[in-house]
Amino acid sequence: DVTHSLQQPNQSSGVTGGRPALISTISRAGIAAGVDGIFMETHFDPANAKSDGANMLPLDQLELLLTQLVALRKTVTGFE
What are the backbone angles phi and psi of residue 54, rounded to the nearest 5°? Predict the structure, then answer.
């Protein structure tokens, strides 16, 4: 669960924060470590999502990230 692992609860504003800039890094690390699946939340407008927007991947970035993760998975499984 990439996006929830980057969630920062109990912010001083009373709103849960997040570190979406790390979504691709954590996803790639998981694939490199051999995970069989990636879960992440995405939204076309994270700033206006009803919940968890602060740790969502913008939808327009999803296709590129998934393409990269599939390529990385093929590389990793090539060593098995």
Answer: -70, -15
User: By C-alpha distance, which of 48, 32, 52 is closest to 40?
Assistant: 52
Q: What are phi and psi of 57, to 5 degrees?
A: -85, 130
Q: pLDDT tens digits, residue range 42-63?
A: 999 999 988 888 899 999 999 9
Beta strands in 1-80 (DSSP E): 7-8, 17-18, 42-43, 57-58
Number of domains the chain is built from: 1
Which residues, including other chains, have CB under 8 Å from residue 68's CB and lie 6 or more apart?
24, 28
- CA terminus-to-terminus distance, the chain: 25
- Look up the pTM and report it: 0.84
H/E segment holding residue 6: none
Domain that holds residue 31: 2-77
Helices (H) and strands (E) in the chain, counts: 3, 4
